[in-house]
Amino acid sequence: MLVRGFSARDIMRQYMAKGDSPTWGRDASSHFGDWQRRNVCAPISMLGELIGVMAGICLGARLQGKNVAGLTYVGDGGQSTGVTYESLNLAAVQKLGLVLVVENNLWGYSTPSDMQFCVKDLAERAIAYGIPGVIVDGTDPCQVYDATYEACERAHRGEGPTLIEAKMMRMKGHAIHDAAQYVPAKLFDYWRNRDPIARFENYLINVKHWLTVEDNHKLIEDVERELEADREAAVASPMPDPETDKTHQGVYCDPSCHEIKPKYGPVVAKPREHGPAGPKAVEAAGHLK
């Protein structure tokens, strides 16, 4: 959200359900976006559902003569849902620019990975779709960036989806009500030593020497100052006014709401040419003799 141009106060006002929040106080969670100016599709609570939405966005753009990268995230638990398979398969068959980042954080709520699936690496599942599967260290921002960049370049060239598995750890519970007491303490200790923020600070300061210790402290102070100002602004924002029409804006769609039209232009695409039938060369399955 921040990279795409939303401010911290937007997110704070949203969680405080303020009247000038992105959803005008009707949703106190992260379910908001801006597809017109910032190319952000509002997320969906049902895990895996946004994969199909992203595939649909890529298909719509393709029909308008443009290849786009539709990127979304899901955890290891969400990756086990049926809609993930259906959506990823559709994207693979149509060679849509879907980039799926699977955060393998070892726990689907309170269910450990070894009770969810038998494969060692979730990226292996990409073989079944005939698409590339990439494994990265989810605590290394540089690896995550490089793999995502290459996947987006493939998408823009019309070469189809990519599945990226990020190995990492969820360091808190599923939500604020979850103390995560089911996680062994030693597991937290192991991953705490691999904190991505600390690793990246060390990389910038001690490895690349792009920042001095003083520069880093000043940067953190500037960010904290900006966050505090945004927090004060969010707290001071008004609560929704039930007497105004704006309270109902966006709940129901009517002709005066907004015009639905193609984002990139008129539909110009031709059907995708299919290659020869048969198994792909990238398949690595065993065959009974």
Provide structural commentary:
The mean pLDDT is 89. Strand 3 (107-108) and strand 4 (111-112) form a beta hairpin. The chain has a four-stranded parallel β-sheet, sandwiched between helices. A two-stranded antiparallel sheet has the order 3-4. It contains eight helices and six strands, in the order ααβαβββαβαβααα. The protein has one domain: 3-Layer(aba) Sandwich (Rossmann fold), CATH 3.40.50.970. It has helices spanning 8-15, 49-63, 82-93, 126-129, 141-156, 185-192, 196-207, 213-236; strands at 70-75, 98-104, 107-108, 111-112, 133-137, 162-167. The chain is of the alpha/beta class. Helix 1 packs across helix 8 and helix 2 runs parallel beside helix 3.
Layout of strands and helices, then pairs:
Blueprint: H1 8-15, H2 49-63, E1 70-75, H3 82-93, E2 98-104, E3 107-108, E4 111-112, H4 126-129, E5 133-137, H5 141-156, E6 162-167, H6 185-192, H7 196-207, H8 213-236
Parallel strand pairs: 1-2, 2-6, 5-6
Antiparallel strand pairs: 3-4
Helix pairs in contact: 1-8, 2-3
Short structural summary:
This protein is α/β, with parallel strands linked by helices and about 290 residues long. Helices cover about 35% and strands about 10% of the residues.
Mean pLDDT: 89
What is the count of β-strands?
6
Biggest sheet, strands in spatial order? 1-2-6-5
- Which percent band covers the strand fraction? 5-15%
Report the top-level CATH class. Alpha Beta
Architecture per CATH nomenclature, i.e. the level-2 architecture: 3-Layer(aba) Sandwich
